[in-house]
Write a structure and sequence with these properties.
By secondary structure, the protein is an alpha+beta fold. The chain is 33% helix and 20% strand. The strands form 3 sheets. A 7-stranded antiparallel β-sheet has the order 1-2-3-6-9-10-11, sandwiched between helices. A two-stranded antiparallel ribbon has the order 4-5. Strands 7-8 form a two-stranded antiparallel ribbon. The longest helix has 27 residues.
């Protein structure tokens, strides 16, 4: 109901009710008019509240790559060609890795064959090295995938830095996690690009480590994906660092739930009303 209609109805009702003679002679009618007015105003308030809560169009931008790590988390920020990293020198892992994936970044001259995994000399020693993974039983699991960086030789090479790696169950790395990476590339093509943040989940207690540099082994991994534009939506996923073969829907969580588990505030640059709306819902059917 429009505001103009409400005002007209209210004005007419006031005129009618202000007539003492009319009031005396038509009490039942006056009561009905008053009830109708209250009902219409309440309905209008509810409708306007729904309109206010709806998320409008959202433009993308590099500011969406900046996540808010929880207070007290060890953090060194690293900016790469294809992604940014919040690195933790205590765990020897990224806290999170964020990038803007577009279809054109998945094509280009860069090939992963012949590219070596490398220690990242931009972070202090001790740091993760190739030797830490030898004989550990874990894969060197990319957070930002090599296949998302084909557009640039430098971006491809930087994707093999150990600050972009976590010890990952081999079945997960080559199975369900890989399928999720492929899904993100499809979404990037379907929606003109998506913003992705992923990283390890560490539970309380003494963690398992590998290698002489004591690289922490995550208990699980998270991934959150945001699409902007006319119909912005976000979705979260949580994968245990273990063998499995399940459909993507089994890993779905709201971004709010991933925030609760990790303590990270994802996409804080979004308008507050949009962030509230898209992070509270998660439906794989929307993707």
């Amino acid at each position: 109901m429009s505001k103009i209609k409400i005002y007209v109805l209210a004005l007419c009702s006031a005129v009618v009710l202000s007539s003492c003679d009319f009031l005396e002679r038509n009490k039942p009618l006056v009561n009905e008019v008053g009830k109708a007015l209250v009902s219409e105003i309440e309905n209008a308030r509810q409708e306007m509240g729904k309109e206010d809560a709806s998320a409008g169009p959202v433009d993308g931008g590099d500011e969406l790559l900046n996540q808010a790590s929880p207070d007290g988390m060890q953090e060194q920020m690293l900016t790469r060609t294809g992604y940014i990293v919040s690195y933790n020198k205590t765990t020897k892992l990224p806290n999170w890795v964020a990038w803007h994936l577009t279809a054109d970044r998945c094509e280009g001259p860069a090939k992963r064959s012949g590219v070596d995994f490398e220690a990242d000399t931009d972070v202090p020693a001790p740091r993760a090295e190739d030797g830490d993974y030898y004989g550990s039983g874990y894969d060197r699991g990319h957070m930002c995938p090599a296949a998302d960086n084909k557009y640039s030789v430098k971006a491809m090479e930087e994707s093999f830095l150990f600050t972009n790696m976590c010890p990952q169950n081999g079945n997960l790395n080559r199975g369900d996690w890989n399928e999720m990476e492929q899904a993100c590339r499809r979404w990037a093509e379907d929606y003109g690009g998506v913003y992705i943040v992923c990283g390890p989940i560490l539970y309380k207690g003494k963690p398992k480590t590998i290698g002489k540099n004591k690289v922490v082994v995550p208990e699980a991994f998270f991934k959150v994906v945001l699409r902007t534009g006319k119909d912005p939506k976000a979705i979260g996923f949580i994968y245990k660092n273990a063998e499995g073969n399940r459909p993507k829907g089994d890993y779905v969580n709201t971004v709010d739930e991933v925030e609760r588990i990790t303590g990270i505030d994802f996409f804080p640059a979004l308008p507050d009303d949009v962030e509230t709306k898209v992070e509270a819902a998660a439906d794989i059917a929307d993707w």
